[in-house]
Amino acid sequence: MIKAGILGATGNVGQRFVQMLAGHPWFEITALAASERSAGKPYEEVAKWRLDTTMPEEVRKMKVVPTKPEAMDVDIVFSAMPAEEALKVEADFAKAGVIVSSNASSWRMEKDVPLMIPEVNPEHLGLIDVQRKKRKWDGAIVTNPNCSTIMMVVTLKPLMKFGIENIHVSTMQAVSGAGYEGVPSMAIVDNMIPFIGKEEEKMESETLKLLGSLEKGQVRDAPFWVSAACHRVAVLDGHTMSVWLRAKKNPSPEDVRKAFEKFNPKLSDLPTSPEKAIIVRDEPDRPQPRLDRMQGNGMSVSVGRIRAGHDNAIKYVLMGHNTIRGAAGASVLNAELLKKKGFL
Amino acid sequence: MIKAGILGATGNVGQRFVQMLAGHPWFEITALAASERSAGKPYEEVAKWRLDTTMPEEVRKMKVVPTKPEAMDVDIVFSAMPAEEALKVEADFAKAGVIVSSNASSWRMEKDVPLMIPEVNPEHLGLIDVQRKKRKWDGAIVTNPNCSTIMMVVTLKPLMKFGIENIHVSTMQAVSGAGYEGVPSMAIVDNMIPFIGKEEEKMESETLKLLGSLEKGQVRDAPFWVSAACHRVAVLDGHTMSVWLRAKKNPSPEDVRKAFEKFNPKLSDLPTSPEKAIIVRDEPDRPQPRLDRMQGNGMSVSVGRIRAGHDNAIKYVLMGHNTIRGAAGASVLNAELLKKKGFL
Amino acid sequence: MIKAGILGATGNVGQRFVQMLAGHPWFEITALAASERSAGKPYEEVAKWRLDTTMPEEVRKMKVVPTKPEAMDVDIVFSAMPAEEALKVEADFAKAGVIVSSNASSWRMEKDVPLMIPEVNPEHLGLIDVQRKKRKWDGAIVTNPNCSTIMMVVTLKPLMKFGIENIHVSTMQAVSGAGYEGVPSMAIVDNMIPFIGKEEEKMESETLKLLGSLEKGQVRDAPFWVSAACHRVAVLDGHTMSVWLRAKKNPSPEDVRKAFEKFNPKLSDLPTSPEKAIIVRDEPDRPQPRLDRMQGNGMSVSVGRIRAGHDNAIKYVLMGHNTIRGAAGASVLNAELLKKKGFL
Amino acid sequence: MIKAGILGATGNVGQRFVQMLAGHPWFEITALAASERSAGKPYEEVAKWRLDTTMPEEVRKMKVVPTKPEAMDVDIVFSAMPAEEALKVEADFAKAGVIVSSNASSWRMEKDVPLMIPEVNPEHLGLIDVQRKKRKWDGAIVTNPNCSTIMMVVTLKPLMKFGIENIHVSTMQAVSGAGYEGVPSMAIVDNMIPFIGKEEEKMESETLKLLGSLEKGQVRDAPFWVSAACHRVAVLDGHTMSVWLRAKKNPSPEDVRKAFEKFNPKLSDLPTSPEKAIIVRDEPDRPQPRLDRMQGNGMSVSVGRIRAGHDNAIKYVLMGHNTIRGAAGASVLNAELLKKKGFL
């Protein structure tokens, strides 16, 4: 078993890491790190558990440790750190020889750091060599995208062949994306908020790196643009997005539907990989977050309403579970790929 | 006082009509029409009142009448009828010499029927002559747009001078838009629905008629396209929309902001007209439905987040009260214009 | 396998029956009954599926049949019929030799009909003989209580030994209890409703029958009173209740806690029986519907906040899943007991 | 005009104070106090305004001051301080000769501090003399009850004549009662919480002081008990409560209804006093927070469902606006009474 630590283990995404790694066939949780004042106390005492499954037995009594490489006996850490802190902390771990599979945004856009979705750009793992040479690290940092970006990019990958020219995307995002205390009830009951800090910028930049090509140790951004408008709505889990897509080859809705259906990355040997990366729904009013977010154990992205737009554009709706497919599950799947490719 | 009747007086929009017309300086409610089985009973008995103001005294004991011209002593009727029924019923009233100010969709796209927003296209009232000649009616039908369209078009009017080329719009609409029983709580608590029947079609067509020019008794559609994606969210009242707008003159966000600020239709003599048709918000996270929908007594449209998009586009967010500005208030304002122009 | 039919198969509770019976080790769904206009069509076409698990393969193509004994080849039917219709329909099935495990309220308070919770009053099955003799039925009707009553009574059973004198109970019930379209979103977003039709009466009467003793073919009501106040809140699934209980022996909170913990009905051979009928929570703010309703696959009742009240009363909070433990799961568990006791 | 300051002016209740005092006929806002780091900045810059009316012009540019008597030129301060800080701060103001009308809980149960509802126990103002003598203050502290207590006690006052013996009360409280960030959306969307810290204790003790008699400079608690169970539900504003009341004279529901209707405290000369302190609703499903909370500008308490309980008890439901009648409005009404009685 590979020894796995979790950084930021008591928060929203940290708890999802615990939930997904408990009983994992390849990883064993050997360390749970949180803030200094939690260190030394049993996890069940410091983590206010808020998932609707029971806290796994194996972590209840585990003593929380400080967020330092020397405090943890691990081969890999899963990071749910806040961006400000992740910058230094994750580098410390990589320097100390640990693989860091991170959900934080700090390192995503660094040129020598893979920003990864196993179904989309597994070849970007090639950046690890570049990273290690440049930084003289024994470990490495591998990141997954922002929770909105990841859902959208999974659906864009099979459409790349049509020659994407531009994308307009409007998101309706769940409150869990802001962390447990991120959105007060007074802000969202009978309301929605047409703004999420830095979210539009992330969707507009990360997408191009993810769909870019690795050439001579560098990622060349995909040659199109994304224009995002991000909104918060009163949904617990599950980000929904409406997409307008223009592509050179002017695919028909049926072409797009087929491309989604045929998208079938060969990841069946990764335990967290869903049977279908994309599920196409034909009902007029699907996907919906409450009904569809747990498809593929929260790892499938559901699409629907594929239809013609103006100017030969395609319109469609996509939805995925933001703290599973869009966060903890994304990091775990990345780690599984790393193991398969021999990095662990 | 002008004698006013309300068709569909017991429903969501019908109750808003009652609320807005009770105490109105020009109109006096003289008849409340509803379904056959309500006829003959006092309004307070058949209307399950669901607004957070008290039912006006003047309508409590008023006997509900059947929806027929001969049953009502009125100069004008405000129609909150369902579309299927409005087609025939509204024509019956117009034929009988009554002015119909309608919120129903049935007649909106008829060539000789004005589709009106007083701040936007008052000159389209010219169609009434055409209508009366063609149909030999003594009355007339005047309509207001769909609740989403109306908010957006109020904000597009001052931008017409930039030479609009196309619009992408994503809506996040309140549940009251579907009528009191339209959206079950099980459909929307912890959920959103990426579909509203016929709504995208309405936004894409009505907008062009509203912003079109009246030439020789005909409306020539505005020369651009609108591509809409409509969604339902867990908000009681207030439709929010994100807009991407491309215009020939490539206005800057500041140009657009100024155009909104300077938009000042001369309607101060209409009682229901708000002080400002458009309110510009500079906070990064506004407008929001719960906080801003009652601005201008529910008749102002709030805009915010005016920013640059890709390809010289402008992005912004707009929000307005769907059952006031977007429905009952729209019909009442139309009626006030009709009175001012001498049709009543 | 026992051949099972579902009456009212397309509604909220009907879908739960389908979900719980698909793959059941003892029962096989052989017939799905719904309204006349659905008859003859495949289930997937007439049932708008609203659960967050996928519709089971085995029912998708099954043709819906009319709600008549002669149309169904079944040993047992699970009834999710509306009360008005259940009175006649369920009798028809019992007359035709079919066992009816009903969630409807129509027959619950009939003297010769068992009102059952397997953990509470399995001996009431003795009423079946009385029923068959009296009515000359080859089949039989067995009912489960109202969804609120069932949760409370599961927690009262282990407290009976303290000599219950009276109970005040205030419920905060989920919207799913009213059926899919029962509570419009406009009625409950930013709101609660302090009334549920007939609910207080049901809790006050059914409880006494359930906890009564079977003596000479008759149930003698339990000798205390229940005073209920029922409220609807914006929760999808999970009824929460606050209880004040007065008992002759003046048990301490610790006595009550122990009684809950030790309550361990021997039902481990019934597939739907949860490991623990009652789960005691010690956190100050639990149970909560979203976090605890799926405990025991939705069949456990969670209790918490056991504390002293005035006048030697005990106060506590209880919560359970209303459409599983409180409806479909209750009927299925009853049916499993019937099978074990040889009635099937 | 009386010079009024607001302590804690930027929070939820502080904003309500601003809203209610702006344009008040007797009071003029002369100082807004908040935390040290806000001091010196304009109110519009430090207060994130979250009410659905516009921030009053008169406070926008007002510089926020530190929470110290010497920093404020005031005759009275309205306190929305957190309980921990209010203990010392409010005493400092009273010592400095200022009247403190406080919504904080710190001083409520002190023997020489009036806990007041003008409609209920205006004679308790007599404690001010006791307080001033004992503490040698030129100013004074007057408090209003907890937001739940206040609603209930307004309805209990007219029932005192029946000889109240005991009360069971179950509350369903709005999220605004916990402050703007008090209840995360993840805690309450599709959920309710059966616990509010210290709330039950407050209801059980404050009620007795409020309904107690002032005898020889001391309040003698009312001679009955209150047993409360407090719950948080997904409502923005408006606390709803179900009450069971036992009284010696066994009043009928109709007796109770009449007592409510006849309750008519003579406060018409206080500007914030509602026309009716209690509004009786006869619909089976009222009062409801969203529909009834703004009755009497948020100062009326609505009651309904008056019905017979077991053991000669009376059951009823009550509801009032927790941040107006239950907080800011309560303090303002107290201050108006102080002015009328010559303390200002």
How would you describe the overall organization of this protein?
- 4 copies of one chain form a homotetramer.
- The first copy, chain A, is an alpha/beta fold and 344 residues long.
- Chain A contains 11 helices and 13 strands.
- In chain A, the strands form 3 sheets. In chain A, strands 9-6-10-13-12-11 form a 6-stranded mixed beta sheet.
- In chain A, helix 4 links the parallel strand 3 and strand 4.
- In chain A, helix 6 packs parallel to helix 8 and helix 6 crosses helix 11.
- Chain A starts with a strand and ends with a helix.
- At the A-B interface, strand 6, strand 9, strand 10, helix 10 and strand 13 of A face strand 6, strand 9, strand 10, helix 10 and strand 13 of B.
